[in-house]
Amino acid sequence: MASGKALNAANLQALGAARLAELLLEISAGDATAKRRLRLALAGSGGSAEVAREVTKRLTSIARAKGFIEWQKVKPLATELEAHCRAIGDLVAPTDPYEAFELIWRLVSCAESVLARSDDGSGRLVAIFHDAVRDLGLLAQAARLEAAALAERAFEALRTDGYGVWEELVTVLAPQLGVPGLSVLKERMEAWHAEPIVIPPERERRVVAWSGSGKIHADEIEARHRRRTATFVLQQIADALGDVDSYIAQLDPASRNAPTVAAGIARRLLEAGRPQEAWDALKTVEASGRHWIPIEWEQARVDTLEALGRSEEAQAFRWKHFVTTLNAPHLRAYLRKLPDFEDFDAEQRALAHALAYGDVHQALAFLVSWPDLLRANQLVLNRTQELNGNLYELLSPAADMLEDKHPLAATLLRRAMIDFTLGAARSSRYKHAARHFYECASLARRLSDFQGAPDHEAYKHTLQAAHGRKTAFWQELEAFQ
To answer: CB 3.0-4.6 Å disulfide test: which of 258, 331, 421, 466 passes with 429?
Structure first.
């Protein structure tokens, strides 16, 4: 039975409304954020119009403020903005989607002022504004906003977007904009892009920064912003309209040789039912002789080969690149395409190849993710000396996965991390090394055969002999015992 002193909703309700009201006033005294949340809650009892007035008043105040928002003030502001978003969505949108749309738009419009005067190293404020933009799509549809007017508002927001908070606006508004609204927005963007940038006389040009090649002027920054913004938005519009040729037209010819760009072009051409053109787009990358090709390009290539009816070539490519890189998606796709009963033998052949793969860490990552823990165990036991204990982001989760059925392999992985940490005197990792040592001690109780490796006590003596003076580590270890 739950204690009557536990801090939960039922016990708080038992205090009664009057006592709760007194406590809230007491707790909120001197806490402006708490008071604003209480006022917002009170406004909710007065209906959506009252909530809208309260939110509008506060957003106006935020937008007009001039003081710098120190890092310790970012969290309270973020919490308040999130509360406003919830209030708009829960209390205004159900009865007045038009007003809710206007309020969210006003909230996002605060971003320019807020981000210009804040220390948002965590990115939390930017994330809130991005989430708010995503809410605009459904609100625009619910409010049945007129497409042309909505396109004009979108254009103004996008062209003045200095922090990228509106970058998803075209995508979220596309259903309500439709072809008419998207066409208006496209015309406005193209016209803005074509407008010449006014370059003042040299003596009047404003210098805003310096680079290795000299001065950077305000008009140059404006030109870059306009070019990048217009190109990005016109690509989004092309995607929303399903116009792959317009999308490609926005790309600089030289950039089309970049693997990720070529893969994006090929994907769009495949969706448009134009596989031969997709193949031609991908071939420009092969012709460039690049040494590193991302997985996006490889997957686009095999999908294009399949669309062209060249399945055998696609299979050969998948296998070749799995053998070279141990790429799991390529292997899974390869196995799916095989006839029944052939896939098992092919999988065993692939796993045997992984076990003998040159890079032990890449092999370990593949085997634990496939998963084939039996072979991962064999890999660790056979190639312990090759392990790099600095790769804790791989070795630590691999040890966690192996410890249940393969405690010796898990122990050897953790020892590799301990040895590196102490050998390199990485004091910031001593706490983690101590935890790994404690985990090794726990696993040692389940091990009767260390298969040639030192048992736990012998390993401990080795550490004491080599690193006995690293007192910070041994102090950390005492905390675990």
So the answer is: 421
